[in-house]
Design a protein that fits this description.
alpha+beta; 493 residues; 8 strands; binds heme C
Length: 493
């Protein structure tokens, strides 16, 4: 043999470091993955270590080995011009054969582990733990609200990524930027909504719900507690005309008419939160289009041409299907209605709201101040007061997140119209078409009140729909003024 293959190329510092690194990565990775398959990590950092740091070590180690070999070869051949460019492998040589078999086996094992590992890594980066807990302080509001919501078992990715590799890749690229902005404290507080790159609802919500499935009406019964000394209850019971229906079996109707069949509603919002909607275009089942505009803020054709026209989908009403931050007034009504908070404590509704809505800078400060304010309001103390204090502190921790500046004020919910403009963004009676017809504000279009009045239980008197009775005498104001101009989530008076 003219040129015996160079031996021991691997015996150099760089390759040796690589071997140590790769061996560590290999053993640690195999062990950790085996543990995860058996017990499932719920700590995101263990997951990040197993599926990101360890594989990086392994791959880095292998690269170093290769680099070392190449360097060593270059060093040795610098003076031997005659040497072939690539090593000659002779499988009849027993030592070379053994090396060859080892390399093949290690490579196959590496590939096998990578397959299992990347499958696990895929699942891991899709898990609620990864999305909700990794940057704990940033995602705390969304994660907490999610856990209290009807979608608590849906998983973040079912709404935020949806099926398919393209959105998976997109979301991970986007995620890299998020990691950067978290590390360098560059993210905005609160995180801006609406989410502009949210995947269209057809590809997310529709995997579990679709308009053809909705039918008829759902009953809504709410008890409100006034901000008076007795925390007087007032109950309203109504049928919400959810509607929808399959256009194949007839005309779609009711609330889900907007997203049924061939109906299309498009709109232009002039503010970032999509609360001001001066322009609406409706295309009905037969293809006729009608444009509605508010008289106050008519857009010029130029402005319309330049504006972003959005087609209404689920998110334009259900913008808070899972990240719900109810107002103090709402949560206290619920707590009083189901008895978690004792309605026998005088003025607890008003005092509770005042304790919650203190403009605190941190959660710790809020906890302390809530205790202080309520202790001052009820100097006599006692177990009922103690329980009220801890309940209200708990309510705060679940609904208001001062570090991220998150509360009901920042994230208005578009369902309904009492404390946010919601449906009245379009249905306030001031959007007109060319012939002067308005988008309806008739109270019976969307719901029929079947019972209302003081107390926790009111006799159901009508199935046809009662005229609304405003609990406080404000004349006919509620017929003209938007409810949310007086009701803001804290007491009106
Ligand atoms: C039922 C569907 C759904 C699930 C499940 C869900 N989200 Fe969301 N999320 C939304 C929608 C819809 C928005 C957009 C709201 C908007 O555009 O106004 C949103 C917005 C967000 C925002 C932007 C800030 C905000 O509150 O609007 C963050 C951050 C977020 N989600 C994180 C998460 C995390 C973390 C999880 C899992 C713990 C999760 N989401 C689960 C539907 C969902
Ligand atoms: C993984 C399946 C899944 C996905 C995806 C999903 N949902 Fe849901 N949704 C559910 C389940 C389960 C419920 C609870 C049903 C129940 O309580 O009877 C629910 C309940 C709801 C409710 C009723 C809430 C209530 O208070 O009772 C609304 C509204 C809703 N989803 C809207 C949405 C919207 C909007 C999206 C898309 C952003 C979405 N969902 C995506 C599974 C899903
Ligand atoms: C025009 C506003 C609007 C649009 C658009 C809309 N919804 Fe709804 N949806 C409502 C209202 C209002 C309710 C009544 C329940 C409530 O008040 O939360 C409701 C109820 C629901 C419910 C509970 C139904 C039940 O029978 O309890 C689900 C699930 C739901 N919507 C999903 C969707 C999905 C998915 C889309 C998109 C295809 C969608 N909605 C589009 C306004 C809307
Ligand atoms: C972007 C504007 C817009 C928003 C927001 C909006 N709607 Fe509508 N809605 C329309 C238009 C346009 C029509 C058709 C004109 C009409 O019927 O007056 C309509 C019609 C309806 C109808 C009658 C459907 C039928 O049976 O013919 C109902 C019910 C309804 N909306 C409920 C709601 C509810 C509930 C909300 C809030 C959760 C809401 N809408 C939010 C634009 C909107
Ligand atoms: C475009 C549809 C629509 C119209 C028009 C409408 N409402 Fe509503 N209203 C809703 C929806 C949807 C809800 C349920 C909100 C929820 O689930 O929290 C609601 C809730 C309510 C509630 C319960 C308040 C709450 O949020 O707890 C009252 C009271 C009410 N409506 C009164 C009226 C009156 C009075 C009118 C007429 C001036 C009216 N509504 C017109 C859609 C409508
Ligand atoms: C001019 C201001 C004003 C307008 C507009 C208004 N309200 Fe009220 N509302 C009040 C006052 C004041 C109270 C009594 C508050 C209290 O006792 O805590 C009240 C009380 C209520 C209550 C009893 C629960 C509570 O918060 O005390 C309900 C329910 C209610 N209003 C619904 C509505 C609805 C729905 C609309 C729109 C259709 C509306 N209001 C419009 C001023 C208004």
């Amino acid at each position: 043999m003219k040129n015996p293959p160079p031996k021991g190329l691997i015996r150099n510092m760089v390759s040796l470091c690589g071997i140590v690194m790769a061996a560590f990565g290999f053993v640690a990775g195999a062990g950790l993955i085996a543990i995860d398959i058996q017990t499932h990590f719920d700590n995101p950092y263990t997951g990040i270590f197993t599926y990101m740091v360890v594989p990086a070590l392994l791959a880095g180690g292998l690269l170093l080995i290769l680099l070392g070999v190449l360097r060593e070869r270059r060093r040795r051949t610098r003076n031997e011009a005659a040497c072939e460019r690539l090593p000659v492998i002779n499988l009849n040589d027993r030592r070379q054969f053994a090396t060859f078999v080892t390399v093949v086996v290690v490579t196959l094992l590496f590939i096998a582990i990578s397959v299992v590992g990347s499958y696990q890594a895929y699942h891991f980066t899709e898990s609620v733990e990864f999305c909700g807990k990794t940057c704990h302080s940033v995602m705390k509001p969304e994660y907490t609200a999610y856990q209290n919501s009807p979608h608590a078992n849906a998983g973040c990715t079912r709404c935020h990524i949806g099926p398919g590799a393209d959105f998976y890749a997109k979301s991970k690229l986007n995620g890299l930027y998020q990691v950067y902005s978290t590390l360098f404290n560059k993210y905005s507080r609160p995180i801006p909504a609406p989410v502009h790159n949210l995947r269209p609802a057809k590809e997310t919500c529709y995997t579990c719900h679709w308009p053809e499935k909705f039918f008829g009406a759902v009953e809504l019964k709410r008890t409100y507690f006034r901000a008076d000394e007795e925390n007087s209850p007032w109950t309203i019971q109504m049928l919400l005309k959810v509607g929808g229906g399959n256009p194949k079996h007839g005309h779609a109707q009711g609330i889900h008419w907007h997203v049924s069949g061939r109906n299309k509603i498009e709109y232009i919002a002039t503010d970032e939160k999509r609360l001001e909607i001066p322009w609406v275009r409706m295309t009905d089942e037969t293809g006729n289009t009608t444009i509605f505009q508010t008289s106050g803020k008519q857009l010029t054709p130029d402005q319309v041409a330049q504006a972003e026209i959005r087609t209404m989908d689920c998110i334009d009403c259900h913008n808070r299907p899972t990240h719900q931050y109810p107002s103090p007034e709402r949560v206290l009504n619920t707590a009083l209605a189901n008895g978690v908070l004792d309605g026998g404590i005088p003025d607890i509704k008003r005092n509770g709201i005042e304790a919650l809505d203190g403009g605190y800078a941190t959660e710790a400060e809020a906890m302390e101040a809530i205790r202080q304010k309520l202790a001052d309001a009820y100097p006599e103390g006692g177990p009922a007061i103690e329980k009220a204090i801890s309940t209200i502190q708990y309510i705060y921790s679940q609904t208001i997140f001062p570090e991220m500046k998150v509360s009901w004020r920042e994230y208005p919910d578009h369902i309904g119209h009492m404390i946010t403009p919601g449906c009245f963004r379009c249905h306030n009676g001031d959007h007109r078409d060319a012939e002067g017809r308005t988008i309806t504000r008739d109270c019976n279009t969307c719901h029929s009140i079947i019972a209302q009045g003081p107390g926790r239980n009111v006799e159901s008197i009508s199935s046809g729909g009662l005229d609304f009775q405003h609990p406080e005498d404000i004349d006919e104001e509620w017929k003209e003024t938007r409810c949310d101009e007086c009701h803001t989530g804290v007491p009106v008076l």
